[in-house]
Design goal:
Bound molecules: pyridoxal-5'-phosphate
Number of domains of chain B: 2
Structural class of chain B: alpha/beta
Number of strands of chain A: 4
Distance between the termini of chain A: 7 Å
Helix content of chain A: 40-55%
Radius of gyration of chain B: 25 Å
Oligomer: heterodimer
Number of helices of chain B: 14
Radius of gyration of chain A: 12 Å
Largest interface: A-B, 29 and 18 residues
Strand content of chain A: 15-25%
Largest sheet of chain A: 3 strands, antiparallel
Largest sheet of chain B: 9 strands, mixed
Distance between the termini of chain B: 63 Å
CATH architecture of the largest domain in chain B: Alpha-Beta Barrel
CATH topology of the largest domain in chain B: TIM Barrel
CATH superfamily of the largest domain in chain B: Alanine racemase
Shape of chain A: globular
Order of helices and strands of chain A: EEEHHEH
Shape of chain B: globular
Number of strands of chain B: 22
Number of domains of chain A: 1
CATH class of the largest domain in chain B: Alpha Beta
Structural class of chain A: alpha+beta
Chain lengths: 81, 455
Amino acid sequence: MKLKSNIAISENGFMFDPYTGDSYNLNNTGVEIIKHLKAGKTNEEILAELKQKYDVDDLSLEQNLYDFIAMLSHYDLLENA
Amino acid sequence: MEKLRYERPIINKIKAGVPDKYGMQPKIPVKSEIDGIPVKEIVEKYGSPVFVISEKTLRETFQKANRAFQSRYPKVQFAWSYKTNYLDAVCRLYHDEGSWAEVVSGFEYDKALSNGVPGNKIIFNGPDKTDEDLKKAIENGSFIHVDHFDELYSLIRISQNTTPKAKVAIRVNMDTGIYPKWDRFGFNYENGEAWNAINRIMLAENLELVGLHTHIGTYMMTANAYAVAASKLAELAVRTNKKFNHSIKYIDMGGGFASKNTLKGAYLPGKDTCPSFDDYADAITSALINSEIAPDQLPTLFLETGRALIDDAGYLIGSVLANKRLSNARRAKILDIGVNILFTSFWYEHEVYPAQESSQQTEDTTLYGPLCMNIDVIRESIQFPTLKKGDLVVIPRVGAYNMTQWMQFITYRPNVVLIDQNKKMHLIRKQESLKVFKEQELVPEFLLNEKPLKA
Ligand SMILES: Cc1ncc(COP(=O)(O)O)c(C=O)c1O
């Protein structure tokens, strides 16, 4: 999964898509995942990172991550594979 | 290393130029207890979903309404509108506060009697009274509110063979400046029908015209409509007195005061827009006091307020069954609360609160019920935090009409619990069971003999 290049995100969760002019609000976990995606990490790597850091069970985390990525895809923020 | 508190990742699109109707919410309110009892504890004991009635709120609301009228008018009598919520425990609380009973069917009438209400403190309304009902009501000295001429003639006929005299009032419908006009109940004021009915009653030997009644509609957003209605009834009372030298004992203004719920499509929340008891009381009592009725003959003011008295005292607790994404990426939740038990979700944008601390992030969410039907929507669109499966939600202001209009569908209707003023819980209606249904059903003999499932 790769984020479109050029997408800008600030520390406080404001994200801007220059292709469409749309902007978004993200919470901290959202920002973190975007950063990991920008760094080219795979879903498995992201899951491992978050699991280590947060108090959350594997299945919830997995469910939430895929839901989040589905939203990124819905907003057309991902490179077409 | 200690792990950090987790919050699920959220992304929300910022819609420029389309400010949210309610602006940004600073903090998501949580409703974790009802009258000091944790919501979780209620569910552990009585299951989910579960209706809860607060004795404290019920009594306080009644006393507030009563005070608004008593402080402005010498003779006031409330009659509890059974159809609004006829659970016995609820009715008895109102009777304990001094309310009479207002009923609209033989079933409700018998329920009022069984709750210890004497016949002469029952107001019998509605278009559906059987001859048996009328006979019983006459004999018990109840107040019979006549809805149409067919009923009036039935009464004249029946009262020839009964004692004592039937105590009757007529229900009057009228133009109060509001839309829609409720002209299907009672006799019309403007076209003279109400006056004709009064004349016919005054000529009937065994009928005593004791009152004039109206119920101008429900969820009336303007108190002024009541002033118009009270003036028109007062005018009829004065005219009756002039012609027959007969004074009307009471004027019954029916129900219809708005509760603090928000109507669908309303721009502002109901709690900011609906008139107060004082507003309604002011409009009605001023109209009566300023009418041409002689001060020493002022009729008793009857009120049949329903929803505005009980709505706030009722809560519905439910739980999240699942989180979903719709095909358009909208967030949706399935609750175990369906429109069959929350009938008022067809009229109201019910408030829904999480019962436990949750994420401060909200998403525009649709709340569905568990019925396998498209109409089963509790909220089309609500800014709501993400809750997990099993998390609890509380819907306030559901005391009116839900526990009477609910429908049994695919599962049992839930428990209803009363929290008393000493914070004790009492089960006041049991969840249904398979046994309850089996008892109502009959299987023809020929279907009992065979094995139902052919091998
Ligand atoms: C005759 C009569 N009285 C009282 C009521 C109670 O009305 P509300 O709940 O609007 O106060 C109703 C409700 O339909 C009614 O029909």
